[in-house]
Amino acid sequence: xxxxxxxxxxxxxxxxxxxxxxxxxxxxxxxxxxxxxxxxxxxxxxxxxxxxxxxxxxxxxxxxxxxxxxxxxxxxxxxxxxxxxxxxxxxxxxxxxxxxxxxxxxxxxxxxxxxxxxxxxxxxxxxxxxxxxxxxxxxxxxxxxxxxxxxxxxxxxxxxxxxxxxxxxxxxxxxxxxxxxxxxxxxxxxxxxxxxxxxxxxxxxxxxxxxxxxxxxxxxxxxxxxxxxxxxxxxxxxxxxxxxxxxxxxxxxxxxxxxxxxxxxxxxxxxxxxxxxxxxxxxxxxxxxxxxxxxxxxxxxxxxxxxxxxxxxxxxx
Length: 317
Fold this sequence. Notes:
Blueprint: H1 15-23, H2 31-37, E1 51-58, E2 64-71, E3 78-84, H3 98-107, E4 111-115, H4 127-141, H5 143-146, E5 148-158, H6 160-175, E6 182-186, H7 209-220, E7 247-252, H8 258-270, E8 275-280, H9 294-311
Helix pairs in contact: 4-6
């Protein structure tokens, strides 16, 4: 095979995921498709009574809705995880984070703060990022009343939410107002340039190059395709990754974001940032659609184990 030949990832899909994902045919996302998918409900009815959830509006122009999740039987100040949902910058809701925080609140004894940031193309960069920063700053400033330990606030982001989380870590570092304890990036969408073999592979599941281009065009607006895209919009463009908090990157081996995520993790380590990288064979993008598969559970274990160690302070000292 020549170095320029495109790999078809269909044969590399984990067999446990094949039936479900072959049946889940998501067309290339465009403006019409986004409008249809935004009508879907992401709310989960299978949530635990052991977790209290309260909705708030973070002051801003406009105000930013956030949902605070806290284990009901927990006392004192707890670590906090600010979560940023996926959806290619163009769709999704903080409802998507509720099942995950339902589990983490109980198993890790943390407070979760999920952010309902504005979506592109109606709101392009920097609007969604500033929404996330406003939520982070609000959680930090109101930590005492929310029962949050100010010294143990971290970020979690999935897909486009991972891209926002990586950019938010840069923004927090540079503004110097909120110290972050850790950053967990789950198949993050980091690089608008789309030059890697993995994003240009054939047969990508759920999120291919066409959808990726639409997402970036929507988020970047007039900046798209130029050399003027700031690293706060696409974290892979940042030249200096030093001074960031301990980070974990988890991505599937047949995810279109694989190469940009591996490169980002490598550069974090080269910059002196403790970074753990997990590349899970056979996993595509949106692997959580098949939660019972062994490879999916492995990815979940990697995230849970890393978070447990961060919350214990073992890697951040």
